[in-house]
Write a structure and sequence with these properties.
With 144 residues, the protein is an alpha/beta fold. The chain has a domain at 10-72 and 98-114 and 130-136: Response regulator (Rossmann fold, 3-Layer(aba) Sandwich), CATH 3.40.50. It contains five helices and five strands. A five-stranded parallel sheet has the order 2-1-3-4-5, with helices on both faces.
Length: 144
């Protein structure tokens, strides 16, 4: 018999952005750093993924194109955060905003709405990983 410890389960991170390049680049960087990454393109997909996957953290854009089908209300990152905070099992999931919007216009509003951090696009991937580790309460002293 051996006394091997089971490997720690990779933290799950949901990347929510309407830009496919951003979703793929961020997901690849997260996976390269030992995280399980999955993505959503809009509010509907985000709700589905949160309910199915129970992520440990969400990287969330603020602005999304209007619903192409014209059905339902238009959800932005603020509406998604309000939905998360209204769900008992999901209200404590840290949210990091990743946005190309003007930080002077949105950063304080995002933080006041409960975001753990606001990162401006184009993203600095080292800063992203450090911010993710901090939001997850991980030891950043051993960061690569």
């Amino acid at each position: 018999m051996t006394n091997q410890q089971p490997a720690a389960q990779a933290k799950k991170i949901l990347v929510v952005d309407d830009n496919e390049v951003i979703r793929k680049a961020v997901s690849l960087k997260l996976k390269a750093n030992g995280y399980e990454a999955f993505a959503a393109v809009d509010a509907s997909a985000t709700i589905k993924m949160v309910e199915q996957e129970r992520p440990d953290l969400i990287l969330l854009d603020i602005l999304f194109p209007p619903d192409a089908m014209g059905i339902g209300m238009h959800w932005d990152g603020f509406a998604i955060m309000r939905w998360l905070r209204s769900m008992s099992g999901d209200r404590d999931i840290p949210v990091i905003i990743i946005s190309g919007t003007d930080p002077a216009k949105y950063k304080e509003r995002c933080l006041a709405a409960g975001a753990a951090a606001f990162l401006h696009k184009p993203l600095n991937m080292d800063e992203l990983i450090a911010t993710v580790r901090t939001a997850l309460g991980e030891d950043t002293a051993n960061a690569v």
